[in-house]
Amino acid sequence: MGLEEKLPNGVLLTSVEKLVNWTRKASLFPATFGLACCAIEMMTTGAPRYDLGRFGMEVFRASPRQADLMIVAGRVSQKMAPVLRQIYDQMAEPKWVLSMGVCASSGGMFNNYAIVQGVDHVVPVDMYLPGCPPRPEMLIDAILKLHAKIMDEPLNARRAAATDGQRTELVASSVRYGKLPAPVGTPEVNVAALEAGHR
Ligand code: SF4
Questions:
Q1: Which residues lie closer than 8 Å to 164 by C-beta, 6 or more apart?
Q2: Which part of the chain is the NADH:ubiquinone oxidoreductase-like 20kDa subunit domain (predicted)?
Q3: pTM of the full predicted structure?
Q4: What is the distance between the alpha carbons of residues 71 and 89, in angstroms, rounded to a whole number?
Q5: Which atom of ligand 1 is nearest to the CA of 101?
Q6: Ligand 1: which residue has its CA nearest to atom 3?
Q7: In what order do the strands lie in the sheet with 96-100?
Q8: Which residues define the annotated binding site for [4Fe-4S] cluster?
Q9: Per-residue pLDDT tens over the stretch 20-52
Q10: Cα 112 vs. chain centroid, distance in angstroms?
């Protein structure tokens, strides 16, 4: 049970992009930041029963400058929105945002003037997690899905975006490795008809 078993010859070949993404996803530090009842589930996730420490992220950072993951746990009031944005701006690049629960993602049942109808009006969101409240298992699942997305990120796009003050969308693997569109002028092929034997 060790690296020796995985690498019997002691040689490992990979790309810089994969190595950097692996280190980023394996050292996500969440900011200490809870807004409403969803935050209780977030705190439970960090406790021993669910043990976020397995992913190297059990210590929620008290300073946004030491954090690179914002878990928006709870509804965002209009009054809190500028504070949330300021914390996001103070976090280290590259950074990610996970919107936890229906309130953070869409305003939920609070369809009124006091609540922001989705935190993506304030900061770019990388992962949405439904539920009211989502269970700790669901939050862990969303974090693992975010890990998978981070592993699939192009290195240069994010660096360029961080330099000019913008943020690049994560490239989903389904898009990145999906089929390319057919060149212009290529006749359309009815695949269903071919498979059914109508040639
Ligand atoms: S989604 Fe449910 S649990 Fe989470 S903040 Fe809204 S009302 Fe509270």
A1: none
A2: 37-146
A3: 0.76
A4: 14
A5: 1
A6: 133
A7: 69-73, 96-100, 127-129
A8: 37-38, 103, 132
A9: 899 989 989 999 888 999 999 999 998 889 988
A10: 27
> What does the DSSP 8-state code read for residue 67?
-
CATH top-level class of 3-197: alpha beta
Q: What is the rounded distance in angstroms from the CA atom of residue 199 to the CA atom of residue 132?
A: 52
Cβ-contact 97, 72 below 8 angstroms:
yes
Q: Provide residues with CB under 6 Å of ligand 1.
A: 36-38, 74-75, 101-103, 108, 132-133
| Nearest atom (ligand 1) to Cα of 37 | 8
Count of all residues that appear for the chain in the document: 199
Q: Which helix (H) or strand (E) holds 96?
A: strand 96-100
72 vs 80: CA distance, rounded Å: 12
The packing angle between helices 16-25 and 136-151, to 10°, is 160
Tokens (6 digits) for 47: 């406790």
